[in-house]
Amino acid sequence: MKKWYFLKISSLNCFCLYLLVCFISCKKEIKKENIKIEETSRVEHLPYFGDETFTPHWITPRSNEEKRFHKIPDFKLTNQLGDTITQKTFDEKIYVVDFFFTSCPGICLKMTNNMSKIQDAFKDDSEVLILSHSVTPTIDSVSVLKAYANKYDVIDNKWHLATGDKVEIYNLGRDHYFVENDLGEPKSVDDFLHTENFLLIDKNKHIRGIYNGLNRSSIAQLIIDIKALKKEF
């Protein structure tokens, strides 16, 4: 009787061990599959965007059509170091753009924290930069931007906090980056520009993606798309 009980317990232990091994193996497979999905872009080539509707255009990279497509024009702004930045600063660079202001009591802090995730993901990658435009440039002086940069661990020359002429910044935001998607509602420089959108710009100054800067999943997708864009060039 005792011998039978011993065998019964042993068999049960073996069965439990088998289930545990299977569970761990399955978990490892799921984890590997998740990694594979997270590192894979949704498409072979990211789309191009050329107006405020953000209709995707599926253009072959380095084609004649691409060369004629909408590009971000040159600009002249000043960063938190007091250095002049232009499109030459971003030559041969992929960069992420947003619009913010240092005294923002609402969404800007979350946007800054999420942009920090982009900075951390590519902090050792010289091909990837960040450009944040102040929409209150008369308030956000160089010294104010530098204090903000220090507070939020902004890496100088990796992440540019830009001030400058308000008309130029607002025209860039509305007419070239199309960050305010208010179709049919023309706005002037007196209308405050504020948006949670992040934009992905390629090495040829084309808009290749728009993302919700408040959404964790959108930020994760932006990181994936930057990696995909690096492979394109």
Automatic annotation (TrEMBL):
The chain crosses the membrane at residues 6-26. One of its GO terms (molecular function) is metal ion binding. Cu cation binds at C104, C108, H194. The keyword Metal-binding applies. Keywords: Copper, Disulfide bond, Membrane, Metal-binding, Transmembrane, Transmembrane helix. It comes from the Bacteria. Residues 66-231 form the Thioredoxin domain. This is SCO family protein. It comes from Flagellimonas hymeniacidonis.
